[in-house]
Amino acid sequence: MGITIQQELEQIKQRGLYRSTRMIDGTQGPHVEMDGRDMLMLCSNNYLGLADSPALIRAAVEATERYGTSSAASRLVSGTMALHEHLEREVAAFKQCQAALIFNSGYAANTGVIAALVGRGDVIFSDRLNHASIIDGALLSSARLIRYPHNDVRALEALMKKHRGSGRTLIVTDAVFSMDGDMAPLRELVELKEEYKALLLVDDAHGSGVLGEGGCGTAELLGVATKVDILMGTFGKALGSFGAYVALSAELRDLLVNRARSFIFSTSLPPAVLGASLAALKIVRSPEGASLREKLRGNAELFRALLVGSGFSLPEGTTQIIPVLVGAVQTTMRFSEMLLGEGIFVQGIRPPTVPAGACRLRCTVMASHTQQDLEWAAERICVVGKQLGVI
What we know:
Blueprint: H1 5-14, E1 31-34, E2 37-41, H2 54-67, H3 75-79, H4 82-94, E3 99-103, H5 106-117, E4 123-127, H6 132-141, E5 144-148, H7 153-162, E6 169-174, H8 186-195, E7 199-203, H9 218-221, E8 230-234, E9 244-248, H10 250-259, H11 261-264, H12 271-284, H13 287-309, E10 321-327, H14 329-342, E11 344-345, E12 348-349, E13 359-364, H15 371-387
Parallel strand pairs: 2-11, 4-5, 4-6, 6-7, 7-8
Antiparallel strand pairs: 1-2, 3-9, 8-9, 10-13, 12-13
Helix pairs in contact: 2-12, 4-12, 5-6, 13-15, 14-15
């Protein structure tokens, strides 16, 4: 007989890897209430501050009043509503693609899309730091998974030469890596996929709405928006709503409708979510969205400069994801707890999310943070960092 559930939980605790949820009251703003205290929120993916936007709230209410609270079925049974198709048309236009398909989450999109596109006899080349949903999708597909060193295009090309086969080839990468905040070399990956006749899937969950002149994302910023085969993004981060989408060709969309199990066998997103997502897209594509992106860029530059100036080690990057490298599990979690005591909510990130020895505080700034918020947070992080010997 194996170990009991209680013993397994105890082992997790002993390794410093035990996780639990923390409840906040109110909206996902720059400040939240936790246990009756005001906390500066420094770990939310609500990058543009839209999660409590009056426009999104109003759109969600109006969609509910008109269409009800649920689609009540999967899209292929009876769950396709006018709002689903309206949102997909808007996403396709936003992403400069022929078509789009909505999924219930980024996890559902990645697992469903990868397993639909490739299978036995096919090969997946995946960046070593890709999100867990990409890895799980690759494992579900039964295709051969080959992981290449992070952002190393030369190593990827060597692997592609070595493992040429008769099956389908898929290159998959995060666009903005969620734990490091750096970007994938999408221009070079597009060149490789064209040379080797591969498909390229880009997960732009953390770049959509944020990067590029029009907020279209990392591919727009790097000038390859029309050259990526499948662009995945989410509504639940910068767009302040929920769910995910892929933007792609009409042909690939048809394949996913027929093959992606997470799409086929899931009740579709409810009207309130679809209404909020449509309102968010409208804001992102407007002058207001451009202003929010500019504020976010300024906040990220300010906070990064403040931390570097205090002596912290930060990975290279320019995005709103700003990881403070700590190293050891226990020190990282102690750092997070002490910051809670100071009034700052920022999560410590541990294995398996990051490699052993690479634990960090994953700080994320929002457009809705004030300069005073960030200056105060950087000062308190510096104080605690010195107390713990991190700097």
